[in-house]
Amino acid sequence: MPFLRWSIWRLAWAMPGFLKTGQIGDGREAACAAYVEANARRGDIDDVLATIDEFAYERSMLMNVGDEKGALLDAAVSRADPARVLELGTYCGYGALRIARAAPSARVYSVEFAAANADVARRIWSHAGVGDRVTCVVGTLGDGGRTLAALADEHGFTRGSLDLLFIDHDKNAYLSDLQSILDRGWLHDGSIVVADNVKVPGAPKYRQYMREQQGKLFDTVEHKTHVEYQTLLADLVLESRYRG
Fold this sequence. Notes:
It is a single chain. This protein is α/β, with parallel strands linked by helices. It contains ten helices and seven strands. The protein has a single domain, classed as Rossmann fold. Helix 6 links the parallel strand 2 and strand 3 (134-138). Helix 3 (45-58) packs antiparallel against helix 5 (94-102) and helix 4 (66-80) crosses helix 5. The radius of gyration is 17 Å and the shape is globular. This is Catechol O-methyltransferase. Pfam families: Methyltransf_3. Keywords: Methyltransferase, S-adenosyl-L-methionine, Transferase.
């Protein structure tokens, strides 16, 4: 039973610290990278993803999108057919890796506030053979404009250049960070925005905004699913198409 696993209880106990540091505090993130390097075939994205899932199921639960919700992300990526992707919340690099697999010609940029997580993700991306097309930018969109400026000035984000946005970081920042991207005009007609964990832990302001904008700025589908790596807690993934 998933809730009987020590790593689940350890995660719940460590959540206040996780919100500050981006890591659970027991070394599971670095252990995941080491496990991938020791057990997954180098250069094989499928095997690296499967190995991360194995680690999360059998060793320590991870705070990434996971395999069940990952399939929803894969489908959204296929619908977007992106050339440029932005992910908010790298953690161990799993979401960006799924995106890189589903869109092999895309450039993927992932924003992560914890430098230690960025190091873990880069190790995993390198092992999977996608380090040349997935970039981690350490920062947050709420840091007074520094990270937004870096994305624009150093990584070529311009008006209408963003095809897919995947939001999976601080739930309280979902709406404000989306608004920052809208203010910059980076989305174009048909761009897709995917948001994880909208029910658990929950992003109620974001969900309400998408409901208010239905048929106006966005067309949104709410995908019913489960919290990563278990089947007891229901969750929602929102997929929203920008109307421009």
